[in-house]
């Protein structure tokens, strides 16, 4: 596959110069400290529906985001105009805001001694030499395969091929300057299966930093069709307490709830069900999670965070015990702690499997509910109470019996985490939280 030109309007040197000019203007205007983030992104999205081109979209985005400090007063402003006049105006706006805000003892740049000094190549940039005709052909092939799975695939929400690339500079008055280039590509498909009056929709997708790492296009379509077909004949089950198996995509969501609960903002606001949990058991003893910012081609890889702080590989959860929080500089100061290099969020989270593939996990489930879709947002981050609409499959003796819909699953995240009894090797790799299916010993299911 040939390597295209970058397509960017600005090169690294030009972005660096804009950053230097913005920092100099802020200092000249009276800022005691400042940082600036400058980014540019380009992309293409093509959607085909029922064999016809539905949309062709191009995007070209750029922006300057500037934060200034006048003592302990903070001001922020942004612009999409890179001209010297616009940069000067943005600096002026940020300074004006800073002069009218209240002092905050926790405000300020990241500590200089915590800034990144090493910048390894994490292999994040792989532009895709894909013209519109090629994208249309890929989307058509994907949708055709989905529609060809069975005559009951009656309609389609379409297939989409997306390719995005971007680069950015982050600089601060501490002298930090970091540059990143990245790409992300995807192919997705969603179809509708019909049997009599009953209709069911489902989808599948593949996503990767490099086009070469994408799953086979026709396989994506086939899986989308098979998933929609498998949901036909769905019905409710009786209300009761059952073992529940979360498929890998939904299991990643459970890990996301852990991240939110032990992130600085939730902790210093005292709005977390895992307050004061450092060094304590927060999950079942079989759970081990590694945070790895240096995973090649990872979706959340980076040598530094959104403040320039150096990232660190760490054992986040060991034997169910929480070893660290997710802190940026501000939340760390509010908590009397140090930044963990997580301004902007968590990095790649790798959850160690304890069991085999989906077949093995269904066997371990025995009789219970296998959840493949969640609906609504019934989660209380303060108490951990969890209640969401769900769909999936009823399983007996390790075998899927029939699809399930119109039910609600409920529990408390604190208890759910402690009731994890197995983690599958069917690992979800399409996001920043890499985890297999998760089996929870018991939850309340509301149905008939």
Can you describe what's shown?
- This protein has 448 residues and is α+β, with helices and mostly antiparallel strands.
- It is built from nine helices and 17 strands.
- The chain folds into two domains: 12-229, PmbA/TldD superfamily (PmbA/TldD fold), CATH 3.30.2290.10; 234-448, no CATH class.
- A six-stranded antiparallel β-sheet has the order 3-2-1-4-5-6. The protein has a five-stranded mixed barrel with strand order 7-12-13-14-17. A five-stranded mixed β-sheet has the order 10-9-8-11-16, covered by helices on one side.
- The longest helix is centred in the first third of the chain and has 17 residues, at 12-28.
- 41% of the residues are buried.
- The model has no long low-confidence stretch (mean pLDDT 96).
Using DSSP, what is the number of strands? 17
Distance between the termini: 54 Å
The CATH topology of the largest domain, please?
PmbA/TldD fold
Say what oligomer this is. single chain
Average pLDDT taken over every residue? 96
Question: What proportion strand?
Answer: 35-45%
Number of domains: 2
Quickly count the helices.
9
CATH-level-4 superfamily name of the largest domain: PmbA/TldD superfamily
Layout: helices, strands, pairs:
Layout: H1 12-28, E1 33-49, E2 52-70, E3 73-79, H2 84-100, H3 132-147, E4 153-172, E5 177-195, E6 198-208, H4 217-230, E7 240-246, H5 248-261, H6 264-268, E8 289-291, E9 314-318, E10 321-322, H7 329-335, E11 349-351, H8 358-365, E12 368-375, E13 385-396, E14 399-412, H9 413-418, E15 420-423, E16 433-434, E17 438-446
Parallel strand pairs: 7-12, 11-16
Antiparallel strand pairs: 1-2, 1-4, 2-3, 4-5, 5-6, 7-17, 8-9, 8-11, 9-10, 12-13, 13-14, 14-17, 15-17
Helix pairs in contact: 1-2, 3-4
